[in-house]
Amino acid sequence: MSKFRLGALPPVPSVLLASLSVQAGAAMAKGLFPAVGPTGAASLRIGLSAVMLLLAFRPRIAAMSGAQWRAVVPYGMTLGAMNVLFYLALARVPLGLCVTLEFVGPLLLAVSSSRRALDFLWVVLAAGGIGLIAPWNGQGLDMLGALLALLAGACWAGYIVLGGRVSQVLPGSGAVATGMVFATLTVLPFTLVGGGLSQLTPGLFASGLLLALLSSAIPFSLEMNALRKLPGRTFSILMSLGPVLAALCGLLFLGEHLLPTQWLAVALVVAASAGATLNAKKVALPVEG
Asked: Main localization of the protein (predicted)?
């Protein structure tokens, strides 16, 4: 019944709810950090999401060809690295700013192949946003956290490129499910070394299930519903609102208050992302991983 209700939603609310669910999941993950650490939270999210997607789509992993393996393994590893880096950044940086910095990766990818003057405006806007976030006086925002968020954005850009290659040899939702398996294998060693899951309790496991639902299963269903009904460009423009929704979730669920200049930074990056998507010949802002 829940699946029917998700599929019955209009496309625009589906996209907005999907993004809101992802950001609420990130806020929940940050609440788990004191108990399991960032890598432990990443393992719970990715591992349990992989199980859910495998059960839902049952990809034929054993029957994959060599070309499919060569495409899906780096795709999954990049997805895992993106999530770990994002959670490590989130442990140091407010959610809204963390997502804002992460968005720089796909934004630069969207304008990287363009030679039009207008697209350089989006780069300038994004650079202005980063400039407003950066703690030039050496106080405030954690610099390592900001760097980790930018690295997560770089992985997001790589995830887009690799995802395009995977879709050519392994189409359908099975590609995402299979990629999640390799994302789990990428994250798990860091978690085991750090001992993030050594104190796992039934309550924490239940929280991990909810985290996987909020961050992966529910958004994936909503996004697939929207993509069947919306042009890709419209979908990506709506997804550009992610930093705003992240800042609101950080405020509501984590009590993270941004400075007026930081809100302006969020607005600049959102405007740059939407503008780059609107004017791009090929949309490069993706479904969130």
From this structure: membrane
